[in-house]
Amino acid sequence: MTTQHTESSPLVRIRSLLPGLARAEQRVAKVVLDSPSTVARRSITEVAEAAGTSETTVTRFCKAIGVGGYPELRIALAADTARSEARAERDLGGEISPDDDIATVVGKVTFADARAVEETAAQLDTEVLEKVVEALASAGRVDVYGVGASAFVAADLQQKLHRIGRVCFAWSDTHIMLTSAAVLGRGDVAVGISHTGATADTVEALREARRAGATTVALTNFPTAPISEVSDLVLTTAARETTFRSGATASRIAQLTVVDCLFIGIAQRHLADTMKALDDTRDAVGSHRLETRHDGRRKARETGK
Fold first, then answer.
1. How many folded domains does the chain comprise?
2. In this structure, what are the phi and psi dihedrals at residue 216, rounded to the nearest 5 degrees?
3. Residue closest to 250 by CA, chosen among 149, 144, 142, 139
4. Under a CB-based contact definition with an 8 Å cutoff, are residues 223 and 238 in contact?
5. Distance between CA 257 and CA 295 in Å, rounded?
6. Which of 186, 256, 259, 303 could form a disulfide with 213 if both were Cys (CB 3.0 to 4.6 A apart)?
7. Which range is least confidently modeled, 93-107, 123-137, 196-210?
8. Helices (H), the chain
């Protein structure tokens, strides 16, 4: 498995690593996530007491999230708080309440979606992304696995790669995922998409694909989740779950952002073939598109009539 931390919000890293932390460290994480600005002003002793644990555990927590120690954590939280306050006017309060009117709901959902894209981009490991692009661009065949909401993202990646002539299949049925994974081999790539990284069907399919000799790739919000254990390369998103699961939409948008980056990277490596395939596929479906007024005006300008 290949994972690296890039410069990003410490809160993003804490949320992504939370499921893999020890129970006492999770209590420290909750204290930090509940009020990062307060923790930035507190001593390590005060944070340990608030979490019901020891100073040693707080130090271990700092190392677990990739921060050298508690002083570095305070500095990072202070900087993150300053950035958050600078864009406070855009922050519509995060959580959706039952009493919010529809305009407020729209504002909160779109803010959460935009934030998911921004935070995903900030923490995305471009070195790992480059390796995944190379693997997909040279693959003989690509299998993409995803169930539930992740199945839609898997289908999007399949459609994008298929349109530029890459052999790619998206599967969401457990039996079909496993049988397809079993016939992969060296030179093939299997991609598992799971927000939690703990979807048994997807993890099992990646395990089978790896056993068959394929390169395995995970796209998840939690880099220490079980899916990472069966993946050669791990790409992460940074989407938050919120009230009414509006975060479920944000998680898909974050995943689709990574999918777009992968697609463009692959297209760049096969540019001539990609442009021809896009032209051919556009022409193939052209007769099924109804003409609009815009099309009529454009044609008139082109013919001079």
1. 2
2. -110, 140
3. 149
4. no
5. 30
6. 186
7. 93-107
8. 10-17, 23-34, 36-39, 44-51, 55-64, 70-86, 102-123, 126-138, 149-163, 174-182, 200-211, 226-229, 246-269, 271-286, 293-303
Residue type, 161: L
Q: What is the mean pLDDT of residues 125-135?
A: 97
Q: Looking at residue 92, what is its pLDDT?
A: 52
Please choose, from the candidates 251, 201, 260, 266, the residue with its C-alpha nearest in 3D space to the C-alpha of residue 230: 201
Q: Which residue carries 């948008």 as its tokens?
A: 253
What is the model's pLDDT at position 68?
87
Q: For 132-161, what is the mean pLDDT?
A: 96
36 plus 142 within the same structural domain = no
- CATH number for the domain spanning 172: value is 3.40.50.10490
Quote the DSSP letter at residue 222: -
Structural domain that includes position 78 = 9-89
Q: Which residues contact residue 180 at a Cβ distance below 8 angstroms, ignoring those fewer than 6 apart?
A: 143, 169, 171, 205
* Separation between Cα atoms, residue 304 and residue 197, nearest integer Å: 57
pLDDT reported for residue 89:
45
Q: Is the pTM of this model over 0.90?
A: no
d(CA 83, CA 87): 7
| Whole-number Å distance between alpha carbons of 135 and 144 | 13
